[in-house]
UniProtKB/TrEMBL annotation:
Compartment(s): Cell membrane
GO CC terms of this entry: plasma membrane
A Pfam family this chain is assigned to: BPD_transp_1_N
Family designation: Belongs to the binding-protein-dependent transport system permease family.
Keyword match Transmembrane helix: yes
This protein's name: ABC transporter permease
Species per Swiss-Prot/TrEMBL record: Microbacterium lushaniae
Main location: membrane
Keyword Acetylation annotated: no
Length: 325
């Protein structure tokens, strides 16, 4: 138990150090960005000299760099991401109003890509060097090569404009609250396709590698059927690398939703970030990037924890550490 706690403690500290490092880079980039910092706070609105002086004093822009950096870190760790001019809302309130829409898009895409990738990868490995394997592998390579924004535009053109099966933009009919599932279909498929293709390739390779291990020969020598060897011994061992891949994939899906939300007009954090960049709203851009960065770091930490629990080699190392202690 002590070895496991030390292991996860080191992971937690390294994640925290990484988060502070990213915040430092973001702060320095914001400081080095060209333009008037006061104007970036208020957007395109005109600013009088008196109001400019008030803003400089209120946001501490006249303080030394190191002091502003410490205030920035303190604000982030207390959940204070600043104020978004032009919207009469804080950055945290704006993000909270959109984060649910982003999760409604990213989580189904993640589940679809993971379940589909596992099933198709295992099926391709089971039918290795046959026509079905060639079809699955070839399709996966082709889909992985297609940029997701281009795939989204293609799906919009075919299924929305030509066939009229799905709406083109938004998350529900005009004036109606909530999410209509018809609005989810195309963006979820677009967001999941690249990850589905990637996971299919990884799962296929992992299963084939597992089938070449000595313990598989031992299982076969015991007279077990091909199906039993595959499902009881090869696939469980092939799932270990998929845990790491799936964790990174969830982070990539969250970050990748920025482009997809723009293509489909989906009102999530990605579209919020795009609009903030267009309006030079640096405070809002910084807030969204901080939340996305924190989400990815937390997901990677949880992935490492799950991998440690699933990998028998790590569990054996923890047990050996306990016996030594």
């Amino acid at each position: 138990m002590k070895a496991a706690l030390l292991h996860y403690g080191r992971l937690l500290i390294s994640s925290l150090v990484l988060f502070v490092a990213v915040l430092t880079v973001l702060f320095l980039l914001l400081e080095l960005a060209p333009g008037d910092p006061v104007q970036s706070l208020v957007g395109d609105n005109p600013v009088s000299e008196e109001f400019r002086s008030e803003l400089i004093a209120a946001f501490g822009l006249d303080r030394p760099l190191w002091e502003r950096y410490l205030i920035f870190l303190g604000n982030v760790f207390t959940g204070n991401l600043g104020y978004s001019f032009g919207t009469s809302m804080t950055v945290a309130e704006l993000i909270m109003s959109r984060i649910g829409n982003t999760l409604a898009l990213a989580l189904p895409a993640f589940i679809l890509s993971t379940v589909g990738g596992l099933a198709l990868g295992a099926l391709a490995a089971r039918t290795r060097s046959r026509a079905l394997d060639g079809a699955i592998s070839g399709t996966a390579v082709a889909l992985f090569s297609i940029p997701n924004f281009w795939l989204g535009l293609l799906l919009l053109m075919v299924f929305s404009l030509w066939l009229g099966w799905f709406p083109t933009q938004g998350k529900s009919p005009y004036g109606q609250e909530g999410i209509d599932i018809q609005y989810l279909v195309l963006p979820v498929i677009t967001l999941a396709t690249t990850e589905l293709a990637y996971k299919t390739r990884i799962m296929r390779s992992s299963v084939i590698e597992a089938l070449g291990q000595d313990f598989i020969d031992t299982a076969r020598s015991k007279g077990l059927s091909k199906q039993r060897v595959l499902w009881r011994h090869a696939i469980p061992n092939a799932l270990l690398p998929m845990i790491t891949i799936s964790g990174y994939s969830l982070g990539f899906t969250l970050a990748g939703s920025v482009v997809i939300e723009r293509v489909f007009g989906w009102p999530g954090m990605g579209l919020l970030l795009y609009d903030a960049v267009q309006r030079n709203n640096n405070q809002l851009v910084l807030g969204v990037v901080v939340v996305l960065t924190l989400s990815i770091i937390v997901i990677n930490f949880l992935t490492d924890v799950v991998y440690g629990l699933a990998d028998p080699r790590l569990r054996a190392r923890f047990t050996a550490g306990r016996r030594t202690a």
